[in-house]
Amino acid sequence: MTEPIVRFHNVTYSYPGTEEPALRDISLEIMQGEYVGIVGLNGAGKTTLGLCVNGVVPSMLSGTRTGEVVVGGLSVEDYPVREMAKIVGMVFDNPEFQMSQITCAEEVALGLENAGVDVETMEKSVSEALELVGLKGFEERSPLGLSGGQQQRLAIAAVLAMKPKLLIMDEPTSNLDPIGKQEVFGMATTLNQDYGMTVIVIEHEVEVLAQFADRIIVMDGGTVVANGSPDEIFGQVDLLEGLGLRVPEATALADILAKRGLWKGPKPTKTDEAIAAVTNLIGVKA
Amino acid sequence: MSKRNPKSTAPDTIDTDLAIKVEDAHYSYPAGNVVALSGVNLEVDKGELLGIIGQNGSGKTTLTKLLNRLLKPTSGNVYVNGMLTTPRTVQEMSAHIGYVFQNPNHQLFARTVKDELEFGPKNIGVEEADIAERVEDAIEFFGLQPYIEEHPYRVSFPIRKLVGIASVVTMRPSIIILDEPSTGQDHQTTRIINSLMRRLAEEGTTVICVSHDMPLLADVVDRVIVMRNTQIISDATPREVFADRELMLTTNLQAPQITEIALGTVTPLGGPIALTPAELADDLENRVKKGAQK
Q: Could you tell me which CATH number the domain at B1-96+176-184+208-249 has?
């Protein structure tokens, strides 16, 4: 068994000036190369969990944290965020807030400059990162002239230039149209499958997670309440709906029919699986 | 005082039952002369629930900003409740048409959530007792009780977004525009927005919702207009729009998952273009039972 890239051991955390913990006694492991989706209501602790992984908690946000977070073999409280950035990259839902430079190349180079990387290595890393996110040739363009999907991919390139082992995306596509969404998730899949990068994505759109993630973590009130494959997790329709969460529409359909005694077997989460199962159920191919 | 465009021959008011009438509207942003809207015609009935979809940059937000008079058409006419918008001020129009911004940070400024909800109706001269009742109702409907004394910027972004919606709802405009109301919202708050839209329409309010959230629109609106490259390219029911695969493809939009499942199974057999899992489940149940009788 390989060493997990992320390990939480009995982690409890409260933001400065608050008594109610944002995370309560969390223990979990994420292995190198996994593509993990995190779902939960707003305020469930999803973003806080991400901030514990990249070291913003506790290095930049004080508060009270107990337990242990080990990322890439390092105990995060012992390292500043800029050191953790070599292992963990994190992007948020508002890429334009992360843009500060005149050209795309400068945007991507920013973190490397701050890390004191030499010019030659920097140029190489910048062009590699832009190529990874499909923005090769955009070096001299202004970040502000890009579409939403392109801006988000640029923000991801800026973290990839640091060559992290782990990418955390916090609602990366909530401001994007469907094509921008597919662009960002498709790119993350390439990074995961072809480069072995570990991906953690916080996302409300469960159909997208069912399509891309291989594990789902469900959070509620600062705790992890379920953790397993998309089929295992989304199959527990009553549990998720009880928490105020949605399951993919494919799964909801199977669940309604199962409750009427008309659906046998596993409940699908993906569109093509559902089409095959429904075709089988009615015995007529469209 | 109305400032009339000397070149315009459009009447200041028209006699109409329509909530909105847009005639051949064009708009170019002054910077760089970027065309954002070209030749848009649109009629919206009072009490209609209308969705606007399209890629980022297709002209959706520009169109809605013409409606509330934040922008004036470069040419063409926009009527709201029969009034030509161009000679009127944004403030005059705000009593008729409420606009909920995608980003609540663009519209919130009061000291507490409660003040924020009271500000709009106070500003348009609603009586004290009436304001109290509207605010009470909004607090209950949106579940804002725990936050009423908080500063709007101290509450979480999703709650702030609900405050932004609630602060427009308390003005009771006859038309409400919601720009991406469910962005960044979880399922629970999206459900609140869903029931809000239904309730507003039941009360006779015209609701226009710009959104990428296809399941939300599929469940709520009666009519969808699709925008592409500064124009309206389709205007139909959600079923017709989502079933049009060519349209979905050319606009890079995606129908809800359940609609795609229906289209891949029962629709070609004469079944429904389902918009919700329950609808498809009912159709499948009938088919399975009929199959068993044979």
A: 3.40.50.300
